[in-house]
């Protein structure tokens, strides 16, 4: 379906960059199916994908003049969609993890907490789509297992298996990046993804 729609050609993109409103509208319309496909493959849920696609198209409309090479439209849009999906994951992680930050935390603690949340958000964003969906729905949004299974069209056993794989992949990913020396990988995932307070 979407594969049949070509990206806008360079002449059209150049005209849009030069301020031609008709060309700009056409570039946005012709980019839309590709942007939506990117968003669906990267974001955790259809709603997040729709939000990310809309945000990316708005950025395209407002900032096409900043695009340096007309042939780089696809990679530029992919980065915008990826960053928007990552931002949404960061928001979910920081909301679910916010309870573990003491109200009197120092500025240094707040910065460290933000860096940890970003590290986890990046690792979650890198998960395969099926694993990312189930992990966010179950561990970040806190939805019941049956609700997650039903919304993804899975049996409860298949949902649990996918969630187990997602958690294992995430633990492995976080274990390979820098982490606090006194914290094991399992503790880092459990505390940061599920929002538990440190012992």
Structural class: mainly alpha
Specify Rg, calculated over alpha carbons. 20 Å
Helix content: over 70%
Low-pLDDT windows of residues: 178-199
Using DSSP, what is the number of strands? 0
State the end-to-end CA separation. 51 Å
The largest β sheet comes out as:
none
The number of helical segments is 9
Query: Helix and strand succession?
Result: HHHHHHHHH
Beta-strand level of the residues, as a percent range?
Answer: under 5%
Spell out the blueprint of helices and strands.
Blueprint: H1 10-17, H2 21-42, H3 46-63, H4 73-97, H5 107-125, H6 129-140, H7 145-152, H8 156-175, H9 185-194
Description of the structure:
- This protein has 199 residues and is an all-alpha fold.
- The chain has helices at residues 10-17, 21-42, 46-63, 73-97, 107-125, 129-140, 145-152, 156-175, 185-194.
- The protein is globular, with a radius of gyration of 20 Å.
Brief overview:
The protein is mainly alpha-helical. The chain has helices spanning 10-17, 21-42, 46-63, 73-97, 107-125, 129-140, 145-152, 156-175, 185-194.
Tag the structure with descriptive keywords.
single chain, 199 residues, mainly alpha, 71% helix, globular, disordered C terminus
């Amino acid at each position: 379906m979407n594969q049949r729609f070509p990206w806008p050609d360079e002449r059209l993109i150049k005209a849009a960059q030069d301020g031609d409103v008709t060309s700009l509208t056409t570039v946005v319309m012709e980019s839309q199916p590709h942007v939506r496909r990117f968003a669906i493959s990267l974001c955790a849920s259809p709603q997040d994908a729709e939000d990310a696609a809309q945000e990316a198209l708005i950025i395209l409309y407002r900032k096409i003049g900043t695009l340096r090479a007309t042939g780089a439209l696809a990679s530029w849009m992919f980065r915008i969609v990826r960053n928007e999906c990552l931002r949404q994951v960061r928001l979910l992680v920081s909301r679910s993890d916010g309870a573990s930050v003491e109200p009197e935390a120092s500025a240094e603690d707040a910065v460290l907490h933000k860096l940890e949340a970003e590290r986890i958000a990046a690792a979650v964003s890198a998960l395969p789509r099926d694993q990312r969906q189930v992990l966010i729905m179950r561990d970040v949004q806190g939805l019941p297992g049956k609700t997650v299974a039903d919304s993804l069209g899975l049996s409860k056993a298949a949902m649990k298996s996918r969630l187990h794989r997602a958690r294992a992949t995430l633990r492995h990913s976080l274990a390979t990046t820098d982490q606090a020396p006194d914290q094991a990988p399992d503790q880092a995932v459990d505390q940061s993804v599920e929002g538990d307070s440190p012992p």
